[in-house]
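User: Show me an example of a complex going from sequences to structure tokens.

Assistant: Sure. Here are the input components:
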Amino acid sequence: MHRIGFLFLAVWLALSCGASWAASGPLEITLVPDASNPPSPRMGDRLKFLSVIRNTGGRAAEGVVAWISLVQVDPGREQPMDLEDWSAHKAVTEAVVSPGREVTVEWPMRLIQSGNYRVVVSAVERQASNVVTSPFADFHVRRKPTVESNRILPIALGIPGVILALMGWRRYHRS
Amino acid sequence: MNPVWWIARKESGEILVSGRGLAWLFALSLVMSVLSLLLVSNTELSLLDNAQVVYMVMGTITALGALFAVVLGADAVAGERERGSLMPLLLTSVTPSEIVSGKMGGQAAGWTVMYLLGLPYLWAVGSSGQNLLQAIAYLALFGTLTVLGFGFFALGLSARFRSVRTALLTSLIAWMLLASPLLLGPGLRQSAVGKWFDAVNPFSASLNAFDSVVIDSQPFAVQAGRLAVALAWLVLTAWYAMRSVRKLEL
């Protein structure tokens, strides 16, 4: 029984040490939506997120790369999104972030598809072996009908109809 | 009246006023209508899919415009010959250059009508999406160069061949070959042959420009190479048409 207790203690210590080692990296990231974002965005709107990458450690962070990730979280449609079409600003690099210094990054984004999304910013530096992530920022994109039947039907039926009427009018006048 | 203007006006009149011209326009509008109605079934397209739809409609308008131009071009000289009206035309003081310029004017009028016919469809599918104004402008620019090139090429063939049937068949084969990227899509054109074909094909240049502008929102500077290909196509085919009509034999 004591052996099992020691085993659990050893595992707990190993895990807690690992966690504290991962958390003790010099970088910290915050992520918040910009105050100018629309309160209830819909497809086609633009959002902006602000993140601050801060060096809270005692040594300089070198070769810092930070990037933004987007995940759809609708039940049954959970998937990472390809940001190719959502944002042209997908990553930033910083050669050195000195202790106590912070870097503010803006992440603009154009909303391409409706649904519930979660955005997160991650960063790595050359010397650390762990990735640092920001808290999540969640948002919902309202649907916007992009191909509307009430626009297409009058055109699709009207234009051939007008040409047909022209043909009929021409025939009538000739006869 | 300037003979070029007179011939162009006669050709344009045949498109806009004659029963045959109106029947062609009716058929072309029917194709556009069916395509648009098929798109109504899917109203939950993402913004990007909507751009894809606009791109498809632009490609279809260009292809139909080129088809219309090919039919008009194949009939331009060989048709006159078959109807027996070519000799009286050549016996007048009108020079071959003026004849071909007038016929080209008719082609331009045909494409203008086709373009104007396509605009409401473009608006209907794309007004709530992205880059609609760019789509309209680029269709005017690239569509004009590509479509008129097809028309001038068919006109040249029409002057060289003695029958409308042969000129039309040859022109349609060329149209099918060059417009094939509309069916193949960019993914299937990634082989060495596909890339080479894309680099020299004016239809590919237009489609790639439409894709780049409407879907990827890229600026005009990116389209310079594609514009050069489309422009070269127009200049070469215009030269071919002029040369073919000058060598015209009864």
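The lines above are the inputs; the final block is the predicted structure for all two components together. Chain B has one domain: 3-246.
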